[in-house]
Amino acid sequence: MIGKFSVDAKSGQARAGTLTTRRGDIQTPVFMPVGTKATVKSMLPEELKDLGAQIVLGNTYHLHLRPGEKTIKSLGGLHKFMNW
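Given the sequence above, the corresponding C-alpha cells read:
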C-alpha cells in the first residue's frame, strides 16, 4: 500500500504513528533531515543512518533545475543518486 498513515498512540492532541511508503515504514514523529540539492550538508549518508534518520527530504525544485529529472533517472533514480 502506498501513502498509508496509521495512528499507533495518542496523548492529548499529539500522536505517534506509522507512515507506510513503497520504500518501507517510517515511524512518526520523525527526524527528517533536508537534502536541498540531494545531499545533507556536512553529513555522509552513513552518519544520517547512524543517527536514526529514516527519511531524507529532497527539494525537487532544486533537483529539477540541476541536475534535472533525466540525469537522476539515468543514474538509477533519486535513492541511488543520493546514496540513500
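The chain has two domains: 1-30, 31-84. Try to locate this feature in the C-alpha cell string yourself.
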